[in-house]
Amino acid sequence: MEKHQEIIEVLNELIEINISRLEGYQKATTDVFDEDLKVLFEGMVNESTLFENQIADFVISLGGEPAKDCTFVGKIHQIWIDFKAAVSANNRHAILSSCEFGDEQAILAYDAILEIDEVQKTPELQRFLSGQRQAIDESLKIIRSLLHATHNADAELETLRNQEN
Hints:
Elements: H1 5-31, H2 35-61, H3 75-89, H4 92-114, H5 117-120, H6 123-164
Helix pairs in contact: 1-2, 1-3, 1-4, 2-6, 3-4, 4-6
């Protein structure tokens, strides 16, 4: 196990990131009113659950103990605190902005881990982590599209209100 300790530790960080992401999106699905966001967030819950399980299986195959909860302190934790606050306010733009930031940070974490020599020497690990990173990137593109549409709709409403005055 000592040989793989570094890789187990970084994989556990990814598990924690996915647990944090999962918890944030679970909160969102119960608190957000917009049906399109509920459906999107439910998909992200499923995605994060799958990723967490895949990484945990790999940690076990290396002889390690997978992380069981979100103990990752730092940016991801703060992201989801901000996210939960945005959801509580049910502000579509704020919710989507928090999602965007959270998934950007998750992608950065995946990118850093994919650069580690031990990961690069393990094609199976590199392949499935790259696939997970790509899926989060696809989710991020959807979030950005919705965020852009929300921003344009808000700007249009503001223009109409100004014309009325």
